[in-house]
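Reopening: structure tokens for the uridine-5'-diphosphate complex, inputs below.
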Amino acid sequence: MLQLVDIGPRSIGGYRGIATDEVLDQLSTVARELRGVRVAHVNATPYGGGVSELLRSTVPLLNDLGLVAHWKTIFGDNRFFQVTKKIHNGLQGAKGGLTEADREAYLGTSRRNAELFEEEYDFVFLHDPQPAAILKMRRKRSGRWIWRCHIDTSWPNPDVWGFLRKYIAEFDGAVFSMKEFIPPDFPIATVDIIPPAIDPLSPKNMPLNEETLRQVLAWIGIEPDRPLITQVSRFDAWKDPMGVIAAYRLVREEFPSLQLALVGSMALDDPEGWDVYHQIIEASRNDPEIHVFTNLIGVGNVEVNAFQRLSNVVIQKSIREGFGLVISEALWKTTPVVAGRAGGITLQMADNSGGILVDGVEACAAAVKTLLRDRGQALDLARLGKERVRHHFLLPRLLLNELHLMKQLVSGQPMKGDALWRSTHDPVCGMMVGSSGVSTTDIDGQTYRFCSESCRHRFVQDQMRQRKP
Ligand code: UDP
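Re-run output (same inputs, fresh job):
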């Protein structure tokens, strides 16, 4: 058997008054139709990174909604995870192909995992490339299989994508976080767009008493009364921690009492993490105001909660980003964010909500200084960001999207293009917006809803371009 991950009980009732009533009401209606349905979510690691963060919350809630949901992790040794990290990097556009030995290592472990996956389910969600080859290797196939991609695969490295594509082609459906992430020659017709979401009730996001939070940070050497900027993310070159250190040095020229915290987790499936960690330690060796923490020394959910709540500014200087849950986590705590203009970050911070998007080290430093100088402006942006998270990036919306997808896969109806889809989804980013779309446009008798003014603007521009004689 694949490893079953232990999860605690959760209740969807707890989200009343936090998520919107519209989403919660729709969720209980759809869930009634799917009572007793068996669902498995399979990924590579029970901790570290956004996917495990999501599954820890969604799987218990699916059970509370009346489905029978399990979370399983695949088995893999260091060699396997070296290859899957190479595949991950390649899908995000990194150069370098897979050797014959890489392919064999990936396929050999996938074959063993396929044998270990014994149980039958109505729906199986395989997350990211690590478990993706299992489906093709199963002798018997039942239920519907969905590939859930959390990576920005808009411009994949052709060698890596060419290899993985034939395994992906086997799936009944696929899910991406943003419409623009779908690779150009994607082999599956049923594709849904479901951005990730945060759990406002998890220990990482729940409200905690300020004095407790201050003590949590003081305990690990942070002075809560001095200015603090933080990046929380896996130690990964795509998250550009060295760029964060460079930006911090520029900001410090104006704010000499500034502290920088780099909080990073070591995921089981990310063997490159240690290399990046050592680079950071080397770069920060002579600066006592740079604090580097990992989950391995006990900096876990509550500490991350404290950092995200008490930092003056949260940074996420990603160069490529599938989604970046940390953005919504910080904004939900009304903390302003300075972030790289990459992938799902732009979706979460559309229309300047939440903070400032940047493209390089100097811009990052300038944006942090702006927010440190003007606390009022910073808080106004953060409050806008929090409202956007409430409407679009809380867990019940994600569950509703997934249940809709399951229903649609059973009915065999097309996902896109029909009038119903057009009236409930933003045609630009692909996100479900329901009646709470931020703005609308009427064209040829059809009302289009958008999650943001930026999406509406792009849509109108495209329409005008297409109509030009
Ligand atoms: N995270 C954490 N501790 C850390 C670093 C990261 O708990 O030291 C969490 C973070 O709070 C977020 C997730 O890991 O929930 C990272 O998800 P994101 O989508 O931002 O990035 P990914 O790692 O999936 O690329």
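The chain has a mean pLDDT of 94. Residues 375-392 form the longest helix (18 residues). Marking as resolved unless the reporter disagrees.
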